[in-house]
């Protein structure tokens, strides 16, 4: 078969570049800026009234959401090379569980 008959046979697939990379970087910078200037870490470490069941439960739920996000973005995306569009196929419960744990940690 001639390559003129099927011109896409010799072409390699082109991986799309992230379109919103700058937006993501700005969101991370804004989050760090907010945590730094709101004295969030200082209040967590030295204010005795926030220790308790609800704080621990919210911390566990928030950590669960962050671990799911880290698994999808870092492990699957960067190390295993999984495309962004295939997360829902590989991990169908990943996004709903991360959303539910984030909302639940915000309630507590």
Task: Write up what this structure looks like.
InterPro entries: TMEM128. This is Transmembrane protein 128. It comes from Ciona savignyi (Pacific transparent sea squirt). Pfam families: TMEM128. Keywords: Membrane, Transmembrane, Transmembrane helix. With 108 residues, this protein is an all-alpha fold. It folds into two domains: 20-49; 52-108. The chain contains five helices and no strands. It has helices spanning 21-37, 40-46, 53-79, 87-90, 94-107. Helix 3 packs antiparallel against helix 5. The mean pLDDT is 77.
Give a brief outline of the structure.
It holds the Pfam family TMEM128. With 108 residues, the chain is mainly alpha-helical. Helices cover 64% and strands 0% of the residues.
Series of secondary-structure elements, N-terminal to C-terminal: HHHHH
Helix content: 55-70%
Poorly predicted tracts of residues = none
Q: Helix count, per DSSP?
A: 5
Major beta-sheet overview: none
Total beta-strand segments: 0
Question: What's the overall geometry?
Answer: flat
What is the domain total for the residues?
2
Structural class: mainly alpha
Mean pLDDT: 77
Distance between the termini: 64 Å
**What proportion strand?**
under 5%
